Amino acid sequence: MKSSKLTLLFLFVPFIVFAQNKSIKPQPLPKGHPGSLITITQDFESGTMDGYNLYVPNSCHTQSEKYPVLVFLQGGLGVGGDVDKLLQWALPQMIMEDSSLKTELDRYLRDTFIVVMPHIDGGEFFNNEDTMRQILKDVMASENVDPDRIYLTGLSRGGFGAWGLASSMSDVFAAVAPICGGPRGVGDYEALASMPIWVSHNTEDAVVRYHRSERGVNQLESQSEVRFHHSSSIASADYENHNYIFTSRESDSHNAWTEMYGASNFYKWLLRFEK
Question: Per residue in 73-128, pLDDT tens?
Fold first, then answer.
């Protein structure tokens, strides 16, 4: 009898520890919004990620076709504090602030992708490979995910992270779009060259210098057969015929992401690719 009690106690311990280290909070969205959003706060064994936000279109369910995943990496403004802090700007804000599915862009933003938005409380995304893999594993276990259509994008600090994580997780991502970042954390340009890349950076950016992205593009071209299609805007990029694009808009603003995330062509480009 004593042995049975000990066995039962042992079986329940992992669950208790897991519950203590993970909390889930539904996020309110505008009335009639075509998706749901939850914030997951979690202690991971390594790295500096402390949770993630998960957006799932209502049309994605167990009976639907498998949905592509878009991983969004925050900029420095969202570092530290609550996990849902990063929802206040850029792509997450665009998804949340409206309920419309009227336009093509509306449908790409709110009814096409499962969106995973990891949060860091310090450090760099590219040093969080193990945690990123764990988060994606958890999402794939809970949602109707197409594992061959997982895409990565990030801005500023997240732009650096997108370069780095893409190089170390080339087995996972079908395409990557780093915005106003640079190739810090890239350990394998050969692996990076195996996936389509759309880089965007304003030429006079005073926060993260344009040459950071330019250096990554040049390095990739020098170490592989990759050749980038250059464009001065997202709208002018030939996204249908090029797997590698470098958009250089003449502007002194750090904000190169609103143009990217506000263009249907960007999402059409992503969806061209599968692993």
Answer: 999 988 999 999 999 999 999 999 999 999 999 999 999 999 999 999 999 999 99
Q: Give how many domains the chain has, as a whole number.
A: 1
DSSP 47: S
Asked if the structure places residue 228 within a domain, the reply is yes
pTM of the model: 0.92
Q: Which domain holds residue 175?
A: 25-271
**153, β-bridge pairs:** 72, 177
Residue 114 domain-assigned (yes or no):
yes
Q: Which long-range contacts (CB under 8 A, 24 or more apart) does 101-106 make?
A: 101/34, 104/264, 105/262, 105/263, 105/264
Between the CA of residue 66 and those of 6, 140, 141, 205, 221, what are the distances in Å?
Answer: 42, 10, 12, 38, 34
Taking the C-alpha atoms of residue 83 and residue 85, their distance in angstroms, rounded to an integer, is 6
CA of 223: how far to CAs of 183, 192, 213, 217, 218, in Å?
A: 14, 10, 16, 10, 9
Whether residue 5 lies inside any domain: the answer is: no
pLDDT band at 46 (very low <50, low <70, confident <90, very high): confident
Other Cβ atoms less than 10 A from the Cβ of 171: the count is 10
Examine residue 148 and state whether it is found in any structural domain, yes or no.
Answer: yes
Can you tell me the distance from the alpha carbon of 178 to that of 184, in angstroms, rounded to the nearest whole number?
A: 11
**CATH code of residue 245:** 3.40.50.1820
Of 112, 105, 241, 116, nearest to 173 (Cα)?
A: 116
Owner of token pair 């995910």: 145
Q: pLDDT tens digit string along 156-191? A: 999 999 999 999 999 999 999 999 999 999 999 999
- Indicate the residue type of 175: A
